[in-house]
């Protein structure tokens, strides 16, 4: 069953001249599927992720996540989707510079109402899962790019979201670290998470089961790669 559905979604930005970022996109993602989105810069990849993640709403059409229609959702409902249904991994890690690795990972749980001891324990477990058990008290500035990205992935997993949205997660790291991050996403897929990954690298996109090729705000073609 689809866990994400876009039906004829349109999104324009008015920046002293109208830009059509999504020009009528329909797409559905089955629960547990692994999809990569490829396309040139400006083709609408980030817009697609932001719509699915409830960071933005469409001008026309419908975006449904886990049965919730985001196009008519209130700001509170959108916040609930961001807090529980989806986890975001960005190219820029968006970590809080004055918080340790554990505190960064625990942050989404503060908003979810977890007590301090429970969220610290969960954050430690997650950091161990991503291979950072020995970096719990480090600040972002004390970590390498790859380690920061892994902290960001651990943070995205804190609320155990069904859907992982990753925007160029290997964009700012070396090849070896990128491979490790892709292995981590592969494990999440094997665990049943639905993954939507934006990349401009073919080699990275081939980790997915299918590649959605976008251009000028539309889906050009969908390439099935089969189960991994
Ligand atoms: P991609 O991720 O494929 O590079 P985007 O989704 O970021 O593409 O952008 C699609 C189009 O929408 C581009 O022309 C971009 O300039 C425009 N756009 C995206 N976000 C905004 C925004 N917040 N304000 C104005 N224009 C935007
Ligand atoms: P990764 O493969 O996870 O990116 P690296 O091989 O880049 O890790 O880094 C190895 C070690 O060097 C790490 O333990 C990290 O603490 C340290 N290190 C790397 N880059 C930086 C940096 N920019 N600032 C502080 N420490 C760093």
From TrEMBL:
Classification lineage: Archaea, Methanobacteriati, Methanobacteriota, Stenosarchaea group, Halobacteria
GO molecular function annotations of the record: ATP binding; ATP hydrolysis activity; transmembrane transporter activity
Record organism: Halomicrobium zhouii
Domain ABC transporter, chain residue ranges per copy: 4-225
One Gene Ontology cellular component annotation held by this UniProt entry: plasma membrane
Transport listed as a keyword: yes
PROSITE patterns: ABC_TRANSPORTER_1, ABC_TRANSPORTER_2
SMART domains, A to Z: AAA (SM00382)
Alphabetical list of Pfam families matching this protein: ABC_tran (PF00005)
SUPFAM superfamilies referenced in this protein's UniProt entry, alphabetically: P-loop containing nucleoside triphosphate hydrolases (SSF52540)
Entry superkingdom: Archaea
Entry keywords, A to Z: ATP-binding, Nucleotide-binding, Transport
Protein name (database record): Putative ABC transport system ATP-binding protein
């Amino acid at each position: 069953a689809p866990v994400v559905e876009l039906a004829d979604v349109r999104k324009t930005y008015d920046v002293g001249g109208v830009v059509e970022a999504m020009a009528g996109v329909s797409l559905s993602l089955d629960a547990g599927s692994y999809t990569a989105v490829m396309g040139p810069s400006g083709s609408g990849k980030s817009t697609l992720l932001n719509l699915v993640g409830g960071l933005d709403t469409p001008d026309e059409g419908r975006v449904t996540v886990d049965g919730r229609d985001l196009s008519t959702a209130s700001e509170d409902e959108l916040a609930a989707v961001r807090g529980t249904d989806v986890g975001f991994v960005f190219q820029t890690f968006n970590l809080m510079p004055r918080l340790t690795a554990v505190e960064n990972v625990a942050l989404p749980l503060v908003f979810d109402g977890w007590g301090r001891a429970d969220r610290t324990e969960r954050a430690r477990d997650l950091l161990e899962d991503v291979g950072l058990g020995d970096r719990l008290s480090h600040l972002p500035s004390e970590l390498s790019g790859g380690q920061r990205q892994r902290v960001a992935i651990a943070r995205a997993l804190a609320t155990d979201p069904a859907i992982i949205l990753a925007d160029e997660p290997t964009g700012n790291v070396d090849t070896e670290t990128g491979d490790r991050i892709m292995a981590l996403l592969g494990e999440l897929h094997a665990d049943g998470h639905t993954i939507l990954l934006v990349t401009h690298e073919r080699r990275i996109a081939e980790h997915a089961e299918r590649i959605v090729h976008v251009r000028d705000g539309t889906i050009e073609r969908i390439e099935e790669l089969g189960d991994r």
